[in-house]
Design brief:
Layout lengths: L1 H24 L9 E8 L4 E7 L5 E7 L10 E5 L16 H16 L7 H15 L1
Antiparallel strand pairs: 1-2, 2-3, 3-4
Helix pairs in contact: 2-3
Length: about 140
């Protein structure tokens, strides 16, 4: 009886950890209209970061690390899905399904924007064009 209870608790704990891992490594579906709330370039590690915000207030931070101008095909995508819950940086695989989901999110943002890109939106468009060109 004790072994059965311990096994059940272990199974529930493992399932909870799997759900938690999925929550911090999945690409969220932001509610439109999606806006670019922040963008910055970090020269130390040659990174470009962009924060997107949905109409519901949910934030999603993504970026590219590497030489975007000269070697865009070698840049690595990373994102923080739930920065308020756990600031976990997730590095999806090159041309993975997660990278395609980020591209789809950026494509929906790009399709609905009205003005030409400038400032923070230009940084988001740079990331979008790099991902679009390699998929």
């Amino acid at each position: 009886m004790v072994k059965s209870i311990a096994l059940a608790v272990l199974i529930v704990l493992l399932l909870a950890l799997i759900v938690f891992q999925y929550a911090i490594t999945s690409v969220p579906s932001l509610e439109p209209p999606i806006t670019v709330s922040d963008a910055r370039r970090v020269d130390d590690n040659n990174s470009l970061l962009v924060s997107l915000t949905g109409s519901d207030g949910q934030r999603f931070t993504l970026g590219l690390r590497g030489d975007i101008e000269d070697k865009p095909e070698e840049t690595a995508l990373f994102f923080i899905s739930r920065p308020n819950l756990v600031p976990y940086v997730y590095w999806p695989g090159f041309r993975s399904n997660d990278e395609k989901r980020v591209l789809n999110l950026l494509a929906s943002w790009e399709k609905n924007r009205k003005a030409p890109s400038e400032g923070a939106e230009h940084a988001a468009y740079q990331i979008y064009s790099v991902l679009k060109d390699r998929n």
